[in-house]
Amino acid sequence: MIDVRVPLFVLFFIFGIPALAELPQLSDAWIRAMPPGQKMTAAYLRVHNLGDSPLSILDVSSTVGMASLHETRLEGGRSTMQAVDSLSVEAGSSVTMAPGGLHIMLMGLKSTPAEGDIVPICVRTSEGDVCTDAPVRRAAPDVPNNHDHH
Ligand SMILES: [Cu+2]
Fold first, then answer.
1. Cβ(134)–Cβ(118) below 8 Å
2. pLDDT in tens, 99-108
3. CATH for the stretch 19-135
């Protein structure tokens, strides 16, 4: 039999090297510690788009309970929370979830995450799924130039 397979490098030469989907990177994840028995809390993190095209954050998940993307907004002097369907992150840019703004709502907790626990949080994006370990803390970590608005 004659081998008619074309070596890969020939295809690359003809069609160009296929662009590899660049997975986004997660950083600065943490979860707010709640008193035992609480059925909900919030997780915060930063999503970095390392690629050269915009990506979408489509869903969030965690092993501790139901997770959904929320945004806290000030409306008429009152703080309200809204579900966010999807979120886009510009190329080379990042989106920060922090108290008073975007956050991952964790509901229906099987057990309340305690201070010092490590909870996995996953983010589904148009470029693929990424996960990170989020430590449970009582307050936002001190980040320079990151003012904590409530
Ligand atoms: Cu919320």
1. yes
2. 999 999 999 9
3. 2.60.40.1890
